[in-house]
Design a protein that fits this description.
- By secondary structure, the chain is of the alpha/beta class.
- Helices cover about 35% and strands about 20% of the residues.
- Strands 1-4-3-2-5-6 form a six-stranded parallel β-sheet, sandwiched between helices.
- Helix 7 links the parallel strand 5 and strand 6.
- Bound molecules: pantoate.
C-alpha cells in the first residue's frame, strides 16, 4: 500500500473521516521523525491491530527548551516516508509549525504535574507539558481507536496514560517494547549525535540496568542500595555523566523503600551531546 502524505489538519481529518465511514479502525503512531526500527515496530504493531495506520511527523517546538536541539533535530522526510510505507502506514501527517500553531503562542496547555515534575521533568521542566499538549491535540485531530508509544520514553508513556484517563480521551494507549541495537543500546533518533567513542560508551546505560536486574534477581530489595550499584556502573564510564538512576513503581512512579510488585528501573545520562534514557521492568516476587 502506498502512503498518502498530508500537511493540513483539514485534509488529514477528511481522509480519516472517509476511512471511518467505511467502518475502518484507525491506529495512530505520533513521532518526531528521523525514524528507526523502534518507530517501525510501533507501526507494525498498529498495523496488526487496526485496519489503517496513520502516523505523524512533527518536531514539536513546545517540548523543546530554548537551549535544546529544536533547530538541528535530525530530519529526513524522504527516508521517513519510505520507512513508514514499508511498515504499514497508509496516511502520514507532516504539518508545519504554522499549521499546528497558527495563532503563534499556544495559550492552552495540558499539564500532568506530579508525574511530570521528576526525572526527565526535573532536567526539562517544560518538556512534558509541551509533549502532553501536542499529543492531546493530535488525538483530537486523528480520533484514533489506538495509539502506540515506545516504552523507551517510559515516563512519557505514564504521563500519556494518565492524561487519557483523567480527560476520558477515547483512545487505547499501547506501550511497545524498547528496540535495541545488537550491543544493547536503546534505539533513539538522538543516537545519531554520538561519535564512535561515545557510541561505545553509551552501552553503559544498559549495563547499569542489567546490574539492577541481577541484584533484584539475587534477592536484593533495598532500593537505595540497588540504585547505588547501578549508579556506580555509569560513574565508572568517563564519557558518561549520570543524570539519575531510579527504581519506581511501574504505574504510579512512586518510590518504594523496599521493592514489591512491578517496578521500573530508570537511567539517564549525558554521553557527549545527547542525554540518553533507558529503562526496564522487573516483577518482584
Ligand atoms: O516521543 C516522541 O517522539 C514525542 O514526544 C511525541 C510523542 C511524538 C510528541 O511530540
Amino acid at each position: 500500500m502506498t502512503v498518502t502524505r498530508v500537511e493540513t489538519i483539514k485534509d488529514f481529518r477528511q481522509l480519516l473521516n472517509g476511512l471511518r465511514t467505511e467502518g475502518k479502525q484507525v491506529g495512530f503512531v505520533p513521532t518526531m521523525g528521523y525514524l528507526h526500527d523502534g518507530h517501525a515496530s510501533l507501526m507494525r504493531a498498529a498495523s496488526d491491530d487496526n485496519d489503517v495506520v496513520a502516523a505523524s511527523i512533527f518536531v514539536n517546538p513546545l517540548q523543546f527548551a530554548a537551549d535544546e536541539d529544536l533547530e538541528d533535530y535530525p530530519r529526513d522526510l524522504q527516508r521517513d516516508s519510505e520507512l513508514a510505507e514499508a511498515n504499514g502506514v497508509s496516511v502520514l501527517f507532516t504539518p508545519t509549525v504554522d499549521e499546528m500553531y497558527p495563532f503563534g503562542p499556544v495559550l492552552t496547555s495540558v499539564a500532568v504535574p506530579q508525574l511530570s515534575d521528576k526525572y526527565e521533568g526535573a532536567t526539562r521542566p517544560t518538556h512534558f507539558s509541551g509533549m502532553a499538549t501536542v499529543v492531546s491535540k493530535l488525538f483530537n485531530i486523528v480520533g484514533p481507536c489506538r495509539a502506540y508509544f515506545g516504552e523507551k520514553d517510559y515516563q512519557q508513556l505514564a504521563i500519556i496514560r494518565r492524561m487519557v484517563a483523567d480527560l476520558s480521551i477515547p483512545v487505547e494507549v499501547k506501550g511497545c517494547p524498547i528496540i535495541r541495537e545488537p550491543d544493547g543500546l536503546a534505539m533513539s533518533s538522538r543516537n545519531t549525535y554520538l561519535n564512535p567513542e561515545q557510541r561505545q560508551a553509551a552501552v553503559v546505560l544498559r549495563r547499569s540496568l542489567d546490574v539492577g536486574v541481577e541484584a533484584i534477581g539475587a534477592g536484593a530489595r533495598d532500593r537505595a542500595a540497588i540504585e547505588a550499584e547501578m549508579l556506580a556502573v555509569i560513574d565508572a564510564e568517563p564519557l558518561a555523566q549520570a543524570d539519575y538512576v531510579a527504581i519506581v513503581d511501574a504505574s504510579s512512579f512512586d518510590v518504594p523503600a523496599t521493592l514489591v510488585n512491578d517496578v521500573r528501573l530508570l537511567v539517564a545520562a549525558q554521553v557527549g551531546r545527547p542525554r540518553l534514557l533507558d529503562n526496564c521492568g522487573v516483577s518482584v516476587k
